[in-house]
């Protein structure tokens, strides 16, 4: 297939659907002008509110008018879109889903992943974040075949659970890991890049991590630093300004994935008999 240009986006989403759409539209136009086939947008790309109730109030089904606008944007720009962290209507009035939606260049939803690990944490000196108050967890591990490789869909806090990424690589045959996020500043400073590079090295996959950046409201700020990492753990793309609304462009190449996996054949060295989750009890 050869190298393919992709773009990773960075933005400061607000509690305004129209403003956020305009920002995403501009980033998509930039990516198209750069010759990219895929644009990855961060978690909460369409809306980032200051309360659970605010986010619940704007949640829509995937066949609603807001997602339709993003599908039309993909079709207009002939661009695949990774829409990380959409507020999808949930299983009951008190909960939504945090959904990562992959849209093709023809404007069709190819796959949807509902975030399975919810961020419930109290960091000293930072706002208390309890995602489960207004979000229901998903239950499926999701990959999708695309023209540029086999893509795994995750969201933000999933990054801290390496067993998920082992499953995506060794059971689901992923080539590319999409990790849209809205990392807090303290956790981002401490762990963002090192965890992303670790996931790339462990799985021998490309990692594309689109990030929210800057001050969203009086309660919430995000770390930024959108990044692309190759299967050897090398950073091959990073937004020049870690907090600006922008894209960075990188090339991904499945030949690189194949070469690294051939030279370091960890898949054949894994002891499935000892620790693989597919092993049945008593084996």
Automatic annotation (TrEMBL):
<keyword id="KW-0378">Hydrolase</keyword>
<dbReference type="GO" id="GO:0016811">
    <property type="term" value="F:hydrolase activity, acting on carbon-nitrogen (but not peptide) bonds, in linear amides"/>
</dbReference>
<dbReference type="Pfam" id="PF00795">
    <property type="entry name" value="CN_hydrolase"/>
</dbReference>
<dbReference type="InterPro" id="IPR003010">
    <property type="entry name" value="C-N_Hydrolase"/>
</dbReference>
<dbReference type="InterPro" id="IPR036526">
    <property type="entry name" value="C-N_Hydrolase_sf"/>
</dbReference>
<feature type="domain" description="CN hydrolase">
    <location>
        <begin position="4"/>
        <end position="254"/>
    </location>
</feature>
<dbReference type="InterPro" id="IPR045254">
    <property type="entry name" value="Nit1/2_C-N_Hydrolase"/>
</dbReference>
<protein>
    <recommendedName>
        <fullName>CN hydrolase domain-containing protein</fullName>
    </recommendedName>
</protein>
């Amino acid at each position: 297939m050869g190298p393919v240009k992709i773009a990773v986006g960075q933005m400061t989403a607000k509690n305004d659907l129209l403003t956020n759409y305009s920002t995403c539209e501009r980033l998509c136009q930039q990516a198209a002008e750069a010759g990219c086939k895929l644009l990855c947008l961060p978690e909460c790309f369409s809306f980032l509110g200051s309360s659970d109730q605010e986010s619940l109030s704007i949640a829509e089904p995937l066949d609603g008018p807001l997602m339709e606008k993003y599908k039309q944007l993909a079709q207009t720009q002939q661009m695949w879109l990774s829409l990380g962290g959409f507020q999808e209507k949930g299983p009951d009035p008190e909960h939504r889903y945090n959904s990562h939606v992959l849209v093709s260049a023809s404007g069709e939803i190819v796959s949807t992943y509902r975030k399975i690990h919810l961020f419930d944490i109290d960091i000293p000196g930072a706002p208390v974040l309890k995602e489960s108050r207004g979000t229901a967890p998903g239950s499926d591990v999701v990959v999708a075949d695309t023209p540029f490789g086999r893509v795994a869909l995750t969201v933000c806090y999933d990054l801290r659970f390496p067993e998920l990424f082992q499953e995506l690589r060794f059971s689901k045959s992923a080539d590319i890991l999409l990790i849209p996020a809205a990392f807090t500043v303290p956790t981002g400073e401490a762990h963002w890049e090192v965890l992303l590079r670790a996931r790339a090295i462990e799985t021998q996959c490309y990692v594309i991590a689109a990030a929210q950046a800057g001050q969203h409201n009086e309660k919430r700020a995000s770390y930024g630093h959108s990044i692309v990492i190759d299967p050897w753990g090398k950073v091959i793309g990073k937004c020049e300004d870690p907090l600006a609304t922008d894209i960075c462009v990188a090339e991904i190449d499945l030949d690189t994935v194949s070469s690294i996996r051939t030279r370091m054949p960890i898949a054949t060295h894994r002891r499935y008999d000892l620790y693989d989750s597919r092993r049945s009890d008593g084996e």
